[in-house]
Amino acid sequence: MADGREILYFDAVQHTRPDSIDVRQLPDRNVNSEIRFDRLLGEWVVIAAHRQTRTQLPDRTQCPLCPSRPGSPTEIPASDYEVVVFENRFAALPGVSTHSSALADHVAGSAPTSPTEKSGRSEVVCFSSEHDTTSAQLGVERTRMVIDVLAERTTALRAMPAVSQVFCFENFGAEIGVTLSHPHGQIYALPFTSPRAAKIEANARRYRDEHNRNLFGDMFAAERDSGVRVVCANDEWTAFVPTAARWPYEVLLFPNRRVADIPELDDHARTRFAELYLDVLGRFERRFDEPMPYIAAWNQAPKGAEDFWWLHLQIFSIRRAPGKLKYLAGAESGMGVFISDTTPENVAAELRAVTP
Ligand SMILES: [Zn+2]
Predict the structure, then answer these.
(1) The Galactose-1-phosphate uridyl transferase N-terminal domain covers which part of the protein (predicted)?
(2) Domains of the chain (ranges plus CATH)?
(3) Ligand 1 center–CA 60 separation, angstroms
């Protein structure tokens, strides 16, 4: 791209794009991200103030994720594409320099192993050149292609020595804070293990040490045996509402056989994922009169946890009822105590009952 960012096209059939030249005059990439360590919580925080200026829900004629047209260049120089990945112009993570906050210098001991400089990376994944479609409407073939792309990017980004965890996700709906409505997802190659993954890793490791068993596997088997919170399933995947769901609508998609990450999924498991994922998204779309906003977050093994981690996708919505959103208020934002307005068993029954 004109400012030196990398762009990658993924096509069902290989072809060249002679028209794919970025003719824009782009300003220098203004990326001043810092990763700071919160000593009290033992968690990393990304400070990325340059993102304040990022594009906010532009008119569709100004969409930066649509293909370029003569006289209207976008982020994708080509006149058409299938799936495309490029480095985020308003990246949270590239070129990060590390500071364990100033205070840390006065606190005994030092932060855990620091991420090295320029170690993270933020990418955008466009699922379709069609502005007005949604992930729920992509169809099995394209959804499967997106999974292949995420697998390829995960492999490439994990190979970066400083990357600890590759986080692929999609935000959907203005209520979630989506700034561009064009169907797309994002990938954060994190130079540290995220707080959620670190907690899960520690619990699963302790369980293994104490019981010589797999925590994910035991929890998943219990869900399948009981079935009360299972929403739908096929021969490769099971979708269920977790026992202690935090969000009004929350579903986990587990592969029936353990794999650590997306690249480890075989051909059949990827296709069957696409089918079940579209089924779940359809239920989210039709549960209320208007499609539910959602976050779809891939939980892949952080480095070092590959031998026991169980890949899963977490899909959740902040919609708790028509016209009502769940806000993270005092209990949740202040103390991290989630108070749910729904019961997981009812939510599972409601989602099972949504007609195709
Ligand atoms: Zn668009």
Answers:
(1) 28-192
(2) 7-193 (3.30.428.10), 197-353 (3.30.428.10)
(3) 6
